Amino acid sequence: MSLPTVSRLFRSALRTQLVPVANVTSKPAKHTVTAGEQAIAMTALFMAILAPSSWVLAHLEDYKKNK
């Protein structure tokens, strides 16, 4: 494949939109999310992301010694 062919492929891919990017509506929400539900969701999200990374950072020296 030559460079102009790849360039044409990228150009055509940028022109066509196969999947809609977002489903945007102007209707109000069917279910309002309470502050408690938001707090639980944010806590779960932060725990899922930050807990494993903080574990690795806290035990980094242990990982270095094992090698």
Automatic annotation (TrEMBL):
It is a single-pass membrane protein. SUPFAM superfamilies: Mitochondrial cytochrome c oxidase subunit VIIIb (aka IX). InterPro entries: Cyt_c_oxidase_su8, Cyt_c_oxidase_su8_sf. One of its GO terms (cellular component) is respiratory chain complex IV. It is found in: Mitochondrion inner membrane. Keywords: Membrane, Mitochondrion, Mitochondrion inner membrane, Transit peptide, Transmembrane, Transmembrane helix. It comes from Anabas testudineus (Climbing perch). One of its GO terms (biological process) is mitochondrial electron transport, cytochrome c to oxygen. Its main location: mitochondrion. Belongs to the cytochrome c oxidase VIII family. Pfam families: COX8. Pathway: Energy metabolism; oxidative phosphorylation. This is Cytochrome c oxidase subunit 8B. The chain crosses the membrane at residues 39-58.
